[in-house]
Amino acid sequence: MTDFDSNHWIDEITRFVFMTNSFYKTHIETEFPTSGRKKLGTLETDVLELFSYYTELSVKEINQLLNLPNSTLTSVLNRLESQEYLERKISLHDKRTYLVIPTSKGHDFINLRHLEKRKLYQYLIDSIATDTHPQEIMNLIKKMSAAIENVNYERLRRIHMDIIKKEYNEFGPWIAMINDSTELPPQFEHESDLILNADYAFKIPRQIERRNAKPGMPLYDQVVAYYSDQLILFDRNETNTIKKTHIQLSDILMIQSLQELLFGELIITTQEDSHSIVYNPVSHEIIEKLVTDIRKTYYDKPEKFNIEALDEHVKIHSPIFKTILLTELTTDDVKLIEYQPFIELVRQKTNAFTFFTDLISKPVLQDSMFLTNGKELIILSRVQEVKSEKDADYGYRKTFIPLDYIKDFSTQPDVTMENLYTLDIKLQNAYFQTKISNDVDVSRLSALINTH
Question: For 1, which DSSP code?
Fold first, then answer.
C-alpha cells in the first residue's frame, strides 16, 4: 500500500461527489429549467441517467444497478413510459425478458443532462488547470475509473461483511477498548486519526438488548479518547453525525462516578459545562481506570497539608463504604474527616397521607463519608440520599473535588424535614450539593480549605 493518508483522500472524494451532485441538483436543474424536467422525480431521473452508459437494460439489470424494490421500480418505469421517455420491448434472445430503451424524448433529456454535466466538470477542470497539469488529472480519473471497473466484488463484500460480523459478534452491554482500526465502529471512521492516536480509547454501546441488535446497524453511540492533557468525547446522533467535545484536564472541577446494579454514569464537570458518560457497570473497570488516570494526571500535586495531622472521625459503620475503601480506593492514602450516619428523618409538617405513609415506611437519610488525601475532597454517598426506609438502594456515588477549587462550604435547612440540611460546596463557577443532617460538623470540612 502506498504511504499516504487514505482516510483524508476518502473524505475529500466523498465530499467532492456530494458537493458536485448537490450543486447540480440545487443550481443547474433549478436555474436552467428544461421542459418536462420538473415533472420528473429523483428516481425517474436516476433511471434515465443509466442510459448515458447503456443502450438498453432489462428490468432486472436496472434493479441491480439502483437497488430499488420491485414495486417501486415498476411504478417508476410505468411513469416514464406514460410520459414517453422510455419504452419496453421483448428481448430477441429471451422472450421472457423485457428490455427497456429510451425514446427520442428520453434521449433528448439524457443528452441535455450529459451536456450540462460536461459544462460543469469543464468549469471545475479549468479552475484547477492553472496549478495542476490537466493530464495528471486525467490519469488520476482514469485510474479510479479502472479500479471501479475491475473491483473484486467478492473480496470487497468479504471485507465489508467481516467488519460487520466482527462488530456484531463482539457486541454486548459492556464497554470495549479500541486497540486498532478493526475495533473502531464504522460510524466513527472519520475520526480514526484522533481516536487511534490517543493514549487509549474505548467505545460505549447503545442502550439496547443484544437480541435487538442486527449486523450492520449502528451499535455504539459514544467513543471516549484519553490523552495526557485532554479527553475527547465523540457522540453519534440519529443522523450518524459525530459531535466532538474536547475537555482539557486542567479545566475539570469535579468528577462523579455513580454505580447501580444495572446503570453507571460518569459526570465530568468543568467551568463551562457538565459531561455525562452512561454505561453498564459490568465493565466499570475501564471507567475506574479513566477516573484514576484523570486524577493522577491532573491532581498529582504535593499535598496541601499532612493528613496524618488531621483528627480522624469515628470508625466506618457502612459495609458498602468499607468495601469501596478496600477495593476501589486502595491506592489512596485517605483519612475520614466527617461521617454522615444513617438516620431517621422528622417531617416539618404532616398530613393524613404522610402520617400513614410514615407508619409503613419512614423517610431516612442514608449514610455518606467525607474523606481527603490532602489534595482532594472525596465524598462517598448513596444514589438515593433521602429515601423511604423500606426502599432498596444498592448504588453509590463517588465524588472527587480538588481542594484548590473549593471556595466555601455552607448549609441550608430543608423545608420538609426538621433534621435535614443541604450542604452547598461552592466551586469555581459551579456548585455541588449533597444532603446532610445536623450531626455533621461542617467546620471540620471548612478546615480543609482554611489550612492551605
Answer: -
2 pLDDT higher than 50: no
pTM of full prediction above 0.70: no
Helices 70-82 + 42-50 axis angle, to 10: 80
* 50: alpha, beta or left? (left if phi > 0; alpha if psi -120 to 50): alpha
How open is the CA angle 138-141-143, to the nearest 5 degrees?
Answer: 105
DSSP state of 403: G
Domain spans of the chain, in order of start:
33-149, 175-271, 301-450
Q: CA-to-CA distance for 226 and 180, rounded, in angstroms?
A: 15
Per-residue pLDDT of 24-34, as tens digits, reads 766 666 655 55
Question: How many CB atoms lie under 10 A from the CB of residue 13?
Answer: 11
CATH of domain 33-149: 1.10.10.10
Dump pLDDT digits (tens) for 254-278. 999 998 888 999 999 998 899 999 9
Q: What is the pLDDT of residues 135-178, one digit of tens each?
A: 777 777 788 777 776 666 566 555 555 667 778 888 888 899 99
Q: How far apart are CA 204 and CA 220, in angstroms?
A: 6
H helical segments located in 129-250: 134-149, 153-170, 192-196
Cα–Cα distance measured from residue 51 to residue 101, given in angstroms and rounded to the nearest whole number:
8
Nearest 10 degrees: Cα torsion 66, 70, 71, 72: 0
